[in-house]
């Protein structure tokens, strides 16, 4: 059955570029996996090879389809037998709003909880003495401590670390010549928890070993249903830079794809910044196509309404959504919630959110804290992000915390429990925010950033950040294989 919406879009795209489509060319395009993408390639080729042509014939489509990977997909995957889609389970703590009173005691409790939870992870593979006990040691005696980093200072010969546990503060010297502990120590982020084996030498403590909580042993792949998750983030609907055309190619693909990959998709996860919002940064209104955030959400809901009904949508929030900015963020509330839900069912979750599907755990996290990690680490910057996203995401998982640095750009609510500690390593860590796509397997955890659907903004240009525009990740729940796909 021809899809009139797709038909119109193909004709319009051809006209926009100064061409007419013959009926045969149109039908041939419709039979391809990514019709809009294919059309754009056909026109590009035509402009080069037949600059006089103004009508796209079937043979032009044929030549491009045969030339590229975009060949007509015969229906050989008809035999895919789909298992029933399991339920989506989300912990209640990721579905509600959290509040504080603003008392100093709340900060003390929050840091104590962060410390204890991370110490517990380290405690699975070592046992600890306390700072007070270390101070009582004689020369050459050793102790292993679980410490929270207060400050780091470089001197000519060593890195001096000031850190504390529940009993007191200690200064640890990490000589530059002790290569392994030094390399680990320079990467420890402020306010994070680590283990240090120290030796008493006169009045100071020398680091012998430094360990981050990390994931010490790769987790086994225990298997899951043969169904796909589709992961995206950072569409920024409402921005002048939102690539609606690419998103429509994605909608066409997810509606029309006949290959097994598309037919296996049962879930679409969106890790925040669905809309561009308002007042997020100075001068933003000049970059907006739609200045009402409610209308931005309604436009986004119209696009989500085009996702097939058998695909469950799980929507988290980011720093551009109209909700509390401090982590953990609640799901969309009130009229904004209504705006998103007006066209179809969507599971609204907070940020971060741990989502369980078919025995797999997915930790959705927009990624605000990544800005502070970039600032804190000497060897990562925005203009090298294309190569360094993996290092950045590994830093979070190795610290077992989603936003280790406290008190810089990322506001964190000092709650009695630190929900940002990564207690159980998830199967998938799905992030966004930095707009650069990446996927890798780190000790059994799929670290994924799903890029963006917004062209480079003026801010990104000023810091040299090249976004990956039009990207989604497809993850099979059974094999945990990840495929990044870019719509052009
Ligand atoms: Fe974003």
Please, could you describe this protein's structure?
With 488 residues, this protein is α/β, with parallel strands linked by helices. The chain has three domains: 69 residues, Helicase, Ruva Protein, domain 3; 275 residues, Purple Acid Phosphatase, chain A, domain 2; 108 residues, OB fold (Dihydrolipoamide Acetyltransferase, E2P), CATH 2.40.50. It is elongated and about 90 Å long. Bound molecules: fe (ii) ion. The site of fe (ii) ion (FE2) has 7 residues, from loops. Fe (ii) ion (FE2) binds next to loops.
Total number of beta strands:
19
Structural class: alpha/beta
Low-confidence stretches: 69-78
What's the CATH class of the largest domain, please? Alpha Beta
The tally of domains stands at 3
So what's the overall shape? elongated
Could you tell me how far the N terminus lies from the C terminus, measured between alpha carbons in angstroms?
A: 25 Å
Which distinct ligands sit in these coordinates?
fe (ii) ion
Helix share bin: 25-40%
* Level-2 CATH architecture of the largest domain: 4-Layer Sandwich
Strand line-up in the sheet with most strands: 3-13-14-15-17-16
Overall pLDDT metric? 92
Any idea what the radius of gyration is? 26 Å
Q: Strand count, sense and closure of the main sheet? A: 6 strands, mixed
Q: What amount of the residues lies in strands? A: 15-25%
Q: For this entry, what is the oligomeric state of its chains?
A: single chain
CATH topology of the largest domain: the name is: Purple Acid Phosphatase, chain A, domain 2
Task: Count the DSSP helices.
Answer: 14
